[in-house]
Amino acid sequence: MQPAVTLRVTRYRPEQESEPTLATYEVPYRKDWVVLDALNYIKDTLDGSLSFRWSCRMGVCGSCGMKVNGSPKLTCASFLSDSLPGPIRVEPLDYFPVVRDLVVDMSDFMRKLKKVKPWIIRHDERPLAEGEYLQTPDQLDAYKQFSMCINCMLCYSACPIYGLEPSFIGPAAIALAQRYNMDSRDEGAPERLEILSEHDGIWQCTFVGECTKVCPKHVDPAGAIQQYKLTGAIHWLKSLLLPRGAR
Amino acid sequence: MPRSITPFLWLLFSAGGTVAALLFPIHILLTGLAVPLGWVNAPSYESVLGLVRNPVARLYLFVFVSLPLFHWAHRFRYTLYDGLQVKHLTALIVVFCYGTALAGTVMAAYLLWTIP
Amino acid sequence: MDRFACDVLVVGGGGAGLRAVIAVAETHPKLRVAVISKVYPMRSHTVSAEGGAAAVIKAGDSLDAHAYDTISGGDWLSDQDAVEAFVREAPEEMLRLEHWGCPWSREPDGHIAVRPFGGMKIERTWFAADKTGFHMLHTLFQTTLKYDAIERYDEWFVTKLLVDAGRCQGVVATELATGKIQVITAKAVILCTGGCGKVFPFTTNANIKNGDGMALAYRAGAPLKDMEFVQYHPTGLPFTGILITEAARAEGGWLLNKDGYRFLQDYDLGKPEPKPVLRSMELGPRDRLSQAFVKEQEKGRTLEGPYGHYVHLDLRHLGARVIDTKLPFVRELCLKYQNIDPVKEMIPVRPVVHYMMGGVSTDIHGATPLPGLYAAGEAACVSINGANRLGSNSLTECLVFGARAGEAAAAFAAAQREPGPSVLAQADDEGRRLEEKFRRKTGGHERIATLRAEMHETMEESAGIYRTGATLEKAAEKLQSLQERFGDLALADHSYTFNTELTAALELSYMLDVAEAIVHSALRRRESRGSHQRTDFPARDDAEFLAHSLAYRGADGRPRVEYLPVTITRWPPGKRVYGR
Amino acid sequence: MSAEAHYTPYHPRWYRRRVSVWWWLQNRAYAGFVLRELTSVFVAFFAGVTLWQLRTLAQGPDAYARFLACLGTPLFVALHAVAFLFVLFHSITWFNLAPKAVVVRLSGKRVPDWVVVGLNYAAWLVLSGAVALIVLRGR
Ligand SMILES: Cc1cc2nc3c(=O)[nH]c(=O)nc-3n(C[C@H](O)[C@H](O)[C@H](O)COP(=O)(O)OP(=O)(O)OC[C@H]3O[C@@H](n4cnc5c(N)ncnc54)[C@H](O)[C@@H]3O)c2cc1C
Ligand code: SF4
Ligand code: F3S
Ligand code: FES
After folding, report:
1. Which residues in chain A have their CB less than 8 angstroms from residue C337's CB?
2. Domain CATH for B99
3. Which among D53, D71, D129 is positioned nearest to B51, based on CA atoms?
4. ipTM (interface predicted TM)
5. pLDDT tens digit string along B13-44?
6. In degrees to the nearest 10, what's the CA dihedral of C570, C572, C573, C576?
7. Residue A234: CATH number of its domain
């Protein structure tokens, strides 16, 4: 077993430098360690000034997304043992502005998420006293996959279209819109379609498909977007062929 | 691009993509390779003409040419935008791509109409 | 320093905080309401909760049954008025979440499905596969986006509560992205900052669970209640401490010692049956199961691995179908982090620090003794959990008491005037403290990691599953010396932008305060009850200790422990019986 | 501190990297994507060839013979060989991605992706066979 592994980590300290630089650290190799453990080792013992986000260390909070050896990954779910013998390159996620070291700014996504209205929209609310909305396991299954998104931003940093066109609403936000559209309790699909057929919405996506490949939670945003396009197109056809009232 | 027409163009793109995926390989194989290389004997002029006279075949050929052209127009347009990052030429690219597809479609209709 | 103002400020964007902020927005739409959180709300630790959330909904269940399970589970230390309010409001809160879109697992006919859970006599735990907390948190967060009135301060780290004229009037925080020190004044503040599992070395808790809110309240003069009660969950993965949810046992999983023997039958927890039996064996309460593990270890009947002793959790007999539909996350986590497939192999597990029963002392409206300061969720102690929380009660608690605290704080805020100028002077002082003691601090000899490791070791040795007076005494001294050494910290990062060394240092100082409260409260409680087991006082002592401990920060900075009687309504203290 | 660093306390100075014009060479996946998109050029090419064929067909047997002769030149054979590979690539990617866009549900249950993909391939084979039969029968 190899005793140590080298990490090449992007540093960016806006107070000292105007461009990112590369730092090299040597950390002990442990079979059970993920890249995040190695980063924590660096922070605890080698360099306290290295900044990165993390929290759950179990792949569910979505904080620790970074580029590991060139592809977007959750660092708490990427084992050192998968990248031997090293050196392992750790960089901030692509296409987001870098705030510091491995921390990127994701406020853009937060604005977009709100824009797609990710909440249940109904014409009239059912009073709580009447109990739950019924929803069969099959109906649940229709949107379940899209509800698994942990907002980790890996898909954005894999999507070249987002890189080229930062106004693109992007994979996760569209998948979440679709999550509500497909929910049998929701009646907001027309409103969301209105928003997502705008210039920055679904039609920007050229089905690169990388978003789905890097998604750690198998959300399949690429699928969500294509299905959404089909819905949008069918809706368009209907509005063309049917009289107003029948839509 | 007016927003209302995008879904329509996408439908054409998808339909064209499906037509191309299902039918183009065999046609290219036959017309472009098997016949020229003599793997099979070329169908005679008359038999081809006879085939094309059939109204179903005419419709088939119309779809066969026009939809895939729109498929190309759509894809190529985005490839130009993204691959070369020439967003500023949007209008030009749009006119070129969809214009070509439209021209091809008109030509196909004309030819199929005029073939005796 | 900029100044922001609002009427109600919620600190923390987890389950409790988001429920509270919605409660304010819905019941008092005119108030300015904001939520401040050191991580984006959907990163909060509620996201990790797996198993489910309890509320009576099925025919055949009753509020009294839920109350009794909770109270006996808590070894009669729960306040029974609080428990009654809790079980009464739980179903409505859970339904509300259903209406907001939470993807609860369903029966074939479309009704909510429930599963059994540890210490519960009847199945009443709602679940969304085994990602319940994840779905609840994201549903809540996405629902808050609907309210334009809700202001958010994402990635702002609270360093101090502003207290003036005897009431809490806001907070000082540092905005992580810029490093700027900011003041938010408020007429009422609700602490929903979660637990403090990171005080211990081996925990299911996320990196952000450092007892911030508890320490903030404690420093502001509010007491911490029942801090000696720390829950060990019996089934964590060795090394990572990743939780294997209780739902794994609820669906029928077995705990086996090294001889493949279901050892719980030796600890008065019932007889082994092939199918799960409620309130019995593997479905006993967590404190008893974790204690049984220690006894097994003493008898030499556990297995030993590179990360200490462990036993096996066996799910193999459940089959791939049940595991994939009811416990997919368990399988995912085992495959990913342990490299084993629970369909074919047994899962190594050991007890792991999981939950804090104690917290900022509140009444049943979430109000702390400090006017204007409210608390809810794991940061608070109402108390419904008593000496041991039942699994799946805490997510529900976040909803019920989050909503209650939100409403109460809003009502309080509506009747207050704007905070005066003297709070701003305090804020300046705090800004100066952060600059001088941390950001511009040079010299110093201690590393954050070293102090943290020593604290961990101390806590594990003294405040673990079994405790004794002598080690607790020693721990108290050790923690005091760590507090002193904290003043000699060496810091490498002097920058403003996203300075995570600064936050790590502040978190360490919070944890040291909380650790002291835990150790001192444990030292004073000379009895064994629920999760607090004293080998030198092995019996429960209702005559002396049917009371909540309250740890106040004394003038010398050390905790001063007082007691408050438990509220008993209808369930006089009895014997905890499981498996019979 | 470097000369061009203009950091002012409290004002974030984010680093934004421009996407390179060569982004699609950055990794295999992107290159594959661009290759996939470029299949459309060959699709258009063959649509053009078909138009040409129709024109010569309309012009009479001589023109048609010249057309066939042209197709026999090495240039066209090579072009068609490349076009064939590209179009094959198009077909495969198209069919494999089809289930992403079109979700088929039968009595509430989602039809598994491999079934949808399989049906696509089956249709492909059947249609190709039919086309070959019709075209070659005319000999
Ligand atoms: C692995 C795991 C599984 C669990 N499973 C279950 C289960 O199945 N059922 C159940 O009922 N319970 C379960 N629990 C317990 C339950 O999840 C927690 O008790 C509950 O989620 C706590 O929610 P909260 O809102 O109080 O705090 P959290 O969700 O922890 O949120 C705390 C918030 O406070 C903010 N914050 C903290 N400090 C500061 C600061 N200084 N400045 C600004 N903001 C701050 C954080 O950013 C965060 O937003 C589980 C716990 C764990 C660890
Ligand atoms: S869709 Fe997947 S990759 Fe994208 S944010 Fe959600 S979980 Fe992450
Ligand atoms: S990678 Fe981007 S282009 Fe579409 S399919 Fe995914 S969003
Ligand atoms: S730390 Fe939470 S996803 Fe990695």
Report:
1. 58
2. 1.20.1300.10
3. D53
4. 0.93
5. 999 999 999 999 999 999 999 999 999 888 88
6. -60
7. 1.10.1060.10
